[in-house]
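Action item from last meeting closed. Structure (177 res):
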């Protein structure tokens, strides 16, 4: 876990990891949540259209409706789920080939949110393997709204040890011209 302070960006990205066990007894202070959401709000998007919306779920009733969308019980240990959605019709479209930037824009904003959560000392885990229909129904979202990804948010449980990162070397993934 990372606590905000004097850590530089390279340390932040090196130490951030997916957390799958949370301390339910520790609520997330609203000012911490606001700083995380603001980091997302400030993310860049194509043509600055900002086609995203953040859904912060802490209500036990709404959480119970959303849990069935993901088949792993560990998400139920998080005091908060943060869902990122976006309106494909509000995203930038490239004229030459009709590429729609919604996935790119939502990827950037999700990354900002997760890194901000790590900076604040919170655990997260980017989840894309879920049934969007369950979330759509639970949140009563229109059909044009894409439910892109979500993350549980919370303070890591004492036994939540991050796994060592396995990454390819720079030489394997970089070509200089």
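Sequence:
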């Amino acid at each position: 876990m990372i606590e905000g302070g004097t850590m530089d960006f390279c340390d932040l990205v090196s130490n951030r990891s997916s957390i799958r066990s949370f301390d339910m007894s520790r609520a997330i202070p609203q000012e911490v949540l606001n700083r995380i959401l603001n980091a997302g709000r400030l993310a860049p998007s194509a043509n600055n259209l900002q086609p995203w919306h953040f859904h912060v779920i802490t209500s036990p009733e709404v959480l119970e409706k959303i849990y069935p969308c993901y088949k792993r019980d560990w998400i139920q240990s998080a005091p908060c789920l943060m869902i990122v959605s976006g309106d494909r019709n509000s995203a930038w479209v490239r004229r030459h080939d009709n590429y729609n930037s919604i996935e790119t824009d939502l990827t950037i904003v999700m990354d900002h949110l997760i890194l901000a959560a790590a900076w604040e000392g919170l655990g997260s885990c980017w989840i894309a393997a879920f049934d969007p229909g369950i979330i759509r129904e639970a949140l009563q979202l229109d059909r044009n709204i894409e439910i892109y990804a979500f993350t549980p948010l919370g303070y890591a449980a004492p036994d939540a040890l991050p796994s060592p990162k396995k990454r390819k070397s720079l030489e394997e993934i970089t070509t200089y011209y």
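Note appended to the action item: Strands lie at 52-57, 80-87, 145-153.
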